[in-house]
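re: that chain from earlier
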Amino acid sequence: MTGQLELPLETEGEARQSQRSGEAPTAVSGTERSGASGLMERVLARPNMLAALKRVRKNKGSPGIDGVTVDELPDWLREHWVRVREELLAGTYRPQPVQRQLIPKTGGGQRALGIPTVLDRLIQQAVLQVLQPQFDPSFSEHSHGFRPSRRAHDAVREVQQYVQAGRRWVVDVDLKSFFDRVNHDVLMGMLSKRIADKTVLGLIRSYLEAGVMANGVVVDRHEGTPQGGPLSPLLANVLLDVVDKELERRGHAFSRYADDCNVYVRSERAGQRVMRLLRRLYAQLHLQVNEKKSAVAPSLSRQFLGFALWVAPGRRVKRKVSRKALEVFKRRVRWLTRRTRGQSLAQVIERLRAYLVGWKAYFRLADTPGVFSRLDEWIRHRLRAIQLKHWRRGLTIYRELRARGMSHETARQIAANSRRWWRNSRYLLNAALPIRFFDELGLPRLAA
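^ sequence. v structure.
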């Protein structure tokens, strides 16, 4: 962040006033309706813009269609910010189209992200920092996604409490392509009830309507809020809060994380009633329920945010990694440890480390340490097979194993069957390549 204080993120007069007052990034109270006088100025205030710049640089990310990177943004701002700021205040600024990028979905298929330019990410972040404090206090206590001091683990613990209390049926609703189907008019109508500043409202609509560049062609967008911009999660929460409030009014036990919403009831019949209600509520928002993936089912048979529930002795409801999440995990590890990559074992483990650390941090909430131990064994099994293949020739294998203290007979047996990587790595290599060997190479243990 060296040199950021010299960025022209406000006028000289405002800069002098900020320095005298030592003001912090401005937040709007949860009860205040944002007036036409000054909301955009709050967005563009120097402390707020510097905080937004810091966040954008910390998040990094790919450049948008203009090719400007996060590291190049400060220099770009020094040259162009005065003009951009004037356009924002006048309501004439127009965002650039987002860059379409496909990423694999955990359950198969691909999800389309819309990557804004770094300038547009900066502006969206600045708007978010002003609007979030206004909207967030009014959201439901059962909404956990993309909110300050809330996370997926809170939602998982909440549904665990529902099931422990005897709500053994779940209304599991999946929305069809939610972020691609957000109706702009419905969303803007909701925002206009809380924001009077037409300049800010116009800016938000311009972000909703910014085109998408795919294969070099810009396609106009008439619905949807693309995943990839800082503002999209808040807009999604604004839209779906209508459903949350109706569920609360009716006294339902539910938990929502972004567009994943589960309602917990005591009978299948009650679940079917709630499902009909949700279909009506979502239809009013011009959203469609994915009937193939939605269901009224026993709570223990469905997963939520990668976790499933099970009943331990004593009737205690506990958490575990869902079968689907385990399949995704193994598929990812197989890809990272493909034996044809031609990398050393240390390089393979380096590639694995970041994924394993992140996965462990998320799923540490599971009450199944035995599952983690078995995954550790499976990963080491794969790595031993990689090392065996790296040695390749029988004589090399024999020498390496003998150097690691293995008996002549066992080393000879493995070397004689040198092409049977997977079988040899399962048992016989444990002594030559013990757990300590992988610890020294920096392989994280999931069960530790």
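Residues 1-6, 11-36 have pLDDT under 50 and may be disordered.
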